[in-house]
Amino acid sequence: MHGPRVWSSRDSTRRNRWRRRVFTVPAILTGFFAFVVLLVPALIVGGIVDLLARRRGSTVRLAIYAVWWAGLESAGVLWAAVLWVRYSLLGQLDSRNSLHAHSRLQRWWSTNLVRGARSLLGMAHGLEGREALRAGGPLIVLARHGSQGDALLVASILATAGLRPRFVLKRQLLWDPCLDVVGHRLPNYFVDRNSTDNRTELDNIARLASDLEDDEAIVIFPEGTRYSDAKRKQAIDTLGTTAPGRVASARRLRHVLPIRTAGLLSIMDAAPSTDLLFLNHVGVHDFRTLGDLWHNVPFPVPIRFHATRISRNETPGASEVVDWLDTRWEEFDDWVATNTPEPSSPATAS
Known about the structure:
The protein is of the alpha/beta class. The protein has helices at about 15-55, 60-90, 95-120, 130-135, 150-160, 175-185, 200-210, 230-240, 245-250, 260-270, 290-295, 320-340; strands at about 125-130, 140-145, 165-170, 190, 215-220, 275-280, 305-310.
């Protein structure tokens, strides 16, 4: 499916973009300045808190990373402004040169956020099955959704492999100003998970996948949301009404949610010869609050990613593909069960 690029069915109009950015862009620039000014007092107070709580620098690490994050966000927005001046004034914002310049900005932003997390938060991650990426793209990446940082880590992994990602992401992430500005100049789609017009969302996702180049990968998190026991039960109850034949497979899952097939099938239909890459991971939990993150910094175990590539000539036809995907997802779940580290108490100072 070809046609004009669509980033969101409701949030990408000129009016909505500027209503959002008039708040978020000044907020991040001001926030960075405030973080820098308050860094020394924060380090003093944080050091005392860590000492009293017998933490290994958790508060201090998070304070420094907050400055790092706000600095990268601010630099990314300013870099994007420079690119706008360079390309938009000449009517070339949609040109191939502009696209690649913004891809370089995206790669710089994502990889440096990950580098900061490695250095400051003690996060380590590795990839098993790296050979699955060596053949290049295009690729359809089915990634596990285990935490709020999944997209960032996936972007970093793909960038290391020389692949430019196109993401299907939830629309709420548009409140991140760098994602909003740069994400609207690169092929992405910010999906409304609560949309009553499902066909519009699926058409736009299919459009995103319709013209992948050899150095690109379209990334979807087919669970649609992060795992919890309550969400698993709700998903099974929904399948009982919409697709009873999938319930038995869904009940066998213990660590991942059943695939929401509509968006994924739209991508597969729009890119019928594109290989699939199943990208799994263990070692990171869904930190729902800043307190959850604080209790797990430095990260107690490495994050292990595992990639499996499946050629499209190995996938079945339309009548059997959903059952085939469910079977692959059960294998996905088994890998998580086998490789999840034993839970441990938060690290404390010796």
